[in-house]
Amino acid sequence: ASLRMNSSALVGVGSSGKSPHKVAMLLAVMDLIENESVFKNEIYFNEVLKGAFSLRFSQLAGENDRNNPHLPFFHLKTSGFWHHKLKPGKASIYDKIESASQSQINETISFAFLDDELFELLNNHVVRELLKGALYRNITVQERSTILDVGNGWDWLECEFAVSDYFSMLNKELRGERYSKTKHRRELLEKLNNRTEGSVEFKRQNISAVLLELGQPYIAGYKPAFNYQQQLKNVVIAYMAGHQVDVEGILETAQQEVGVSQDLVVDWENVLDQEPPEHITKVAEIQRLYLARKSNYADREMRNRSLGEGGEKFVIEFEKYRMEKAGRHDLINEIRWSSKEEGDGLGFDIRSFIPERDEELFIEVKTTSSGKYQPFFISDNEVSFSKDRSDNYSLYRVYEFKREARIFVLPGAVDQHVNLEPKSYKASFNSGGVTP
């Protein structure tokens, strides 16, 4: 629904005197995406594309039309959604071309590519069928309904409405603006096909799960539900691809310097969350290159020093409260902010105590402005330390730090609680062979 194709740049089909070349080229690209001959947003002017174009062109061409695939490949650049990646040093030659030949295309253009959102949309069967119908003719409401029919499941357009509404709420939440989830839900229901309020709430939980898998923040009040339709993930990716500036703005808002105000009275009694997230098995899925992947929220949080230090300071204050509540005032002044006093690389951030055992407690702090299910980064060194000192180690996860910050605790070896996925590699210059 959000796609806007520049119809003035596309020549229609079925009217006398109008060329079918651009339509045939777009249909050919859809065919190649469908059979996975095109799986990246790179459309090469090769024999595969020419063959797909010829098939579509033969269905549309009139007596006087000539099979010239190079013409739409070049002139679709006027559409606003079709672009060319030029070969190095060929821009001046390209700029002088008025009607390209095949040799000029081969000389100056590496490949064509679509707008990010359009490419993501075309990876969905429903959207392809709708666009094919739109290219052939103005499809009727009945035809559109037939294409979108998924039984009782949410169709593509419903998912689009839900995703757009979710991002609107997420943006307000991260900005600290007041908003009504109930009002948003009621307005959304008016656009849907007789859905219940419960169905909307569960769909929002599905969207939270998709965003977590894509490395994005989510609305803390919507616990992720991972049993979602693949179509929903495609809609989220398409939305992010088409609203990259907005998504980037959301991430920048989330990463603004944060901290607990000195004037804020914290209810330490309710800071500790006794129910950490359950161990969720990673969802098995086929990985596909997608374009809405430029910004990873967890990675940004890892690099946000003010956020990390704010969370560690918050934990120190909580530990002082914990010692006081245990009647161990003698230990309060011995709590150490180790990562600040001794530097990073220790494998933990804070040295506190287990008062009932008169033993040290080594605490690693991970802080997020998002909800308790937000993934976090942890180094090999930190994981190893948690295993070596498992009886005297805990990871404190500080979450919803921009609002009323809370903590849940993962005691012992970290890998007992979370799924660890390698995200980086050590680069060295040794040959890998045995030195004689």
Structure description:
With 436 residues, the protein is an alpha+beta fold. Helices cover 43% and strands 9% of the residues. It is built from 18 helices and six strands. The strands form two sheets. The chain has a four-stranded mixed β-sheet with strand order 3-4-5-6, with helices on both faces. A two-stranded antiparallel ribbon has the order 1-2. Strand 3 (350-354) and strand 4 (359-367) form a beta hairpin. Helix 1 packs across helix 2, helix 1 (21-34) packs antiparallel against helix 7 and helix 6 (116-122) runs antiparallel to helix 12. The longest helix has 21 residues, at 305-325. The protein is elongated.
- What kind of sheet is the major sheet? 4 strands, mixed
Spatial strand sequence of the major β-sheet: 3-4-5-6
Radius of gyration: 28 Å
Helix content range: 40-55%
In terms of per-residue confidence, which ranges show pLDDT below 50 for 5 or more consecutive residues?
1-17, 259-263, 283-293, 432-436
Number of H/I helices: 18
Keywords:
18 helices, alpha+beta, 43% helix, disordered C terminus, two-stranded antiparallel sheet
Please outline what is shown here.
With 436 residues, the chain is α+β, with helices and mostly antiparallel strands. 43% of the residues lie in helices and 9% in strands. The chain has helices spanning 21-34, 47-60, 70-75, 91-95, 102-108, 116-122, 125-136, 141-148, 156-175, 181-189, 197-213, 230-242, 244-254, 297-303, 305-325, 329-332, 338-341, 380-388; strands at residues 82-86, 109-114, 350-354, 359-367, 393-399, 406-411.
